[in-house]
Amino acid sequence: MGSMSASTKPRLCAVLASLGGIWLAHTQQPPAQPLTVTKIADDLHVISGSGGNVAVYTTDEGAILVDDKFERNFGEIMAKVKSITDKPVRYLINTHQHGDHTGGNALFLGAGTEIIAHENARVNMEERKMPGLPRLTFSRDFSIRLGGKLVRARYYGRAHTNGDAFIEFPARRTIHTGDAFVAGAPFIDYSSGGSGAQWPQTIGRLMAEVSFDTVIPGHGGVMTREDLLRWKQSFETLNQQISSLRRQGRPKEEVQQLAKTDSLPGWGPNPGFGTRSFPGLFDELGK
Question: What percentage of the chain reaches a pLDDT higher than 90?
Answer without folding.
Answer: 87
